[in-house]
Each structure stands twice: as C-alpha cells, then as structure tokens.
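Sequence in, structure out. Go.
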Amino acid sequence: MEDVRDGRVDVAFIRGAHGVDRGVAVETVLEESMLAAFPADHPMVKGRARKRIALSELADESLILYRRHNGPGLYDAIISACRAAGFSPRVAQEAPRMLSTLSLVAAGLGVSLVPASLRRVNIEGVVYVNVSGPVAMRAPLTLIWRDAPLTGAIRRLIEEVRAHRAAEDPAR
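Output:
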C-alpha cells in the first residue's frame, strides 16, 4: 500500500486491504473462503476424509501464518476469527510468503489458514480442509492504485480486471 501511495509501484494486487490510505484507490477483485492446511500425517486428517473442521478445533495447534507486516488485513482477520471461535491463536511461525507457510506445514511445523485458491498448489505432504466458525473467514484479493489521473496502461489493466470479474460474477 505504501509503495503504491508513494509512487514506487503503479498498481498492485494485495490480500486484504487493511484500512485505506489517502491517495490510494481500492477495489476488491474477489473474496474467497479460507482453508486449514495440515501436514498429511497430522492426527486430525491422517487416514480420514475430513471435509470440514470447526475453527475452534485448532485452539491447541501451532499456527503458521503469513507475516502481518506483509498482509495485515488477512492476518488480523484470522486472529479475529480465532478469538470469535473462543481461543487466542498460538502463532508458532510467520512466513514471508503464503507459499512458504505451506512448505512449513509440509515439514510438520504446524497448521496454517490459507485462501482457498492455494488448494491448487499441489505441495506434497499438505492436506486442505474447509473451515467453519462463528465468523466466515474470507480472503479478499484487492487491486490498488494511486488515486490520480491514470496512464493508459494502468487504466487498461483496471478495465481488464473489472471485465474479468464481471464475466466471473454477472451479479456484480
């Protein structure tokens, strides 16, 4: 957000805009559900075809999360959802990238909560399970750009994103 606001980056996709900076335009591109990512040999999933887990079942688990600095909106949403489910999460590790969280999960260092699209990343040793809780955990993907006159390339990118979103969800 700061890089866009300060002109170092023209446009960016970010996960969960945390507040809105003056001078930055924000548009949600999509919202997806969150999944729990478990090591394949974890007792909650080993030998079971679990389709869903209650968020509260993760109360005693070591969580691996994407660093708050890199994604404060998503990080804070996860922490808030855990608290709404009746527990304060035990964050054992923070990773610099979402894919890094999955590598740490595969290594057996904990469990993670990730956007559903990461299910498509086929990392050996990771099992994904849907999560339910008192608060629906959503992972918004947001497009941001400097709130200033747009160049042709930036305008075109924004138009393409909007057209793709409209094609995917005609109700918008």
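Check: The first helix runs from residue 2 to 5. The helical segments are 2-5, 72-84, 98-106, 152-168.
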